[in-house]
Amino acid sequence: MQETEIVFSIMILIMSVVIHEVSHGCAALYFGDETARYQGRLTLNPLKHLDLTGSVIIPLLLIISKSGFVFGWAKPVPINPYNFRNRKWAEPIVALAGPLSNISLAIIFGLLIRFGDSLGILSPSFVHIAGYVVLINLILAIFNLIPIPPLDGSHLLFSALSERYANIKITLQRFGFIFVLIFIIFLWPFVTKYVLYLASLLTG
């Protein structure tokens, strides 16, 4: 990967994770929690959200290593679920808002590539960059939907589990980071081919 592609990939990743986090905050605000707004986090200004390790160093190392896995994160938007008007529905919807924002970006840019390129109204350089937008956002969405803490999918899982399964929740929270690493090392290579298939399906 050329240096310009590395720079564009990191820029796309940063903006994608920022939109992801802001979407969580906006969904929380809709349900009555203004914590993110009070702390100035409902903004697309990346400086308010950047995490040096998760937004720059880790993605850069993954891209340079050509691991086939590009991932990163921003500082989580602060959310207080005790402020939600309808906690039963608010928690899963707020958790889902982040991945849905990435899926939306992937669909929008995928359709731009599919129809814009076929009509000849887009430059090859834009199509190339838009392809990265589709791929990176699909990776972010699918990865975050994995039901392992601290990923968004875990909140969806926990909201569906009854109290009788509290021991499962405690175990996942305690060893979540280890489970995520295991997933990345052993299972993500199998998921990658489906991510690429979805990307090709969107872009044509």
What are the defining features of this structure?
single chain; 204 residues; mainly alpha; 7 helices; 72% helix
Structure, described:
It is globular and about 55 Å long. With 204 residues, it is mainly alpha-helical. It has one domain (3-203). It has helices spanning 3-30, 35-38, 52-65, 87-119, 124-144, 152-160, 166-203. It contains seven helices and no strands. Helix 1 (3-30) crosses helix 5, helix 4 packs parallel to helix 7 (166-203) and helix 5 packs antiparallel against helix 7 (166-203). The chain is 72% helix and 0% strand. The model has no long low-confidence stretch (mean pLDDT 88).
Summarize the structure.
The chain has 204 residues and is mainly alpha-helical. Helices cover 72% and strands 0% of the residues.
Number of helices: 7
Describe the sheet with the most strands.
Answer: none
Q: Could you report the average pLDDT, rounded to the nearest whole number?
A: 88
In quaternary terms, these chains amount to single chain
Low-confidence sequence ranges:
none
What's the alpha carbon Rg, rounded to whole Å? 18 Å
Helix and strand pattern: HHHHHHH
| Tertiary shape | globular
Strand content: under 5%
How many structural domains?
1
User: Termini, distance in Å?
Assistant: 23 Å
Helix percent band: over 70%
